[in-house]
Design a protein that fits this description.
Layout: H1 7-22, H2 28-36, E1 57-58, E2 64-65, H3 68-78, E3 85-89, H4 95-101, E4 106-111, H5 114-126, E5 132-136, E6 149-154, H6 163-167, E7 169-179, E8 187-194, E9 197-205, H7 219-222
Parallel strand pairs: 3-4, 3-6, 4-5, 6-7
Antiparallel strand pairs: 1-2, 7-8, 8-9
């Protein structure tokens, strides 16, 4: 059922937006992008009635679509401008990608699960978001052919931010990523590239799936 067909979804979305504001999300552009993006299209049908709850939800391949507050926080802290070129590591169902695409000039997104990537590409095209370039690959290696990026967003946690992603930042660029070897130790970090190095800021505790190197084998190759 689409949001247009279910006024209840609209009310739940409005409640979520109010909750995000109360939690400290103040960027009107970020809140507007969330308002325009139908999260129910990015979760399995069995969880559609929870699409506007402020919780992470499971998707295919053992992945998750992040809690709306975390999506909003990471996006706000990324400080995206409408001329920015953004690299996203971990497309997942494409929900975070959709938010980024509504704010940036162009988004380059990498996903290691080909099935997830193909589904996200179709989903985002159906929403009329065409400023996105997709790649199935190892996100820890970045996208060397397209560097530098004004902004980098990582939606999976590693013990340290991969050097390739730091190197991908333009001077003055910003990277936001969860960092920590174990889920209970993960911290959200914002890293700025300066003329003479990097400056890092702790944004609080988070919990993400691990950043895994390599490309996942297709299901048919695993059976």
């Amino acid at each position: 059922m689409t949001e247009a067909a279910d006024p209840g979804l609209i009310q739940r979305k409005l409640r979520l937006l109010m909750e995000l504001r109360r939690a400290g999300i103040a960027d009107a552009r970020v809140l507007g992008a969330i308002e325009k993006t139908p999260r129910e299209r990015f979760v399995p049908a069995a969880f559609a009635d929870q699409a506007y709850e402020n919780v992470a939800l499971p998707i295919d391949q053992g992945q998750t679509v992040s809690q709306p507050y975390v999506v909003a926080l990471m996006t706000e802290k990324l400080e995206i401008g409408d001329r920015h070129k953004v690299l996203e590591i971990g497309t997942g169902s494409g929900y975070q990608t959709a938010i980024l695409a509504r704010l940036a000039r162009r988004v380059f997104t990498i996903e290691r699960h080909r099935e997830l990537l193909q589904e996200a590409e179709a989903r985002l095209a159906a929403l009329g978001l065409h400023n996105i370039v997709f790649r199935c690959g190892d996100g820890s290696r970045g996208w060397p052919e397209q560097v530098p990026f004004d902004r980098v967003l990582v939606t999976a946690a590693a013990a340290e931010v991969p050097e390739a992603l730091l190197d991908a930042l333009a001077t003055g660029g910003v990277l936001v990523a969860p960092v920590g070897r174990h889920p209970r130790e993960q911290r959200l970090r914002r890293i700025r590239r300066l003329d003479n190095g990097f400056a890092s800021e702790d944004l609080g505790a988070v919990r993400f799936v691990p950043l895994v190197s390599g490309v996942a084998r297709a299901v048919r190759e695993q059976t």
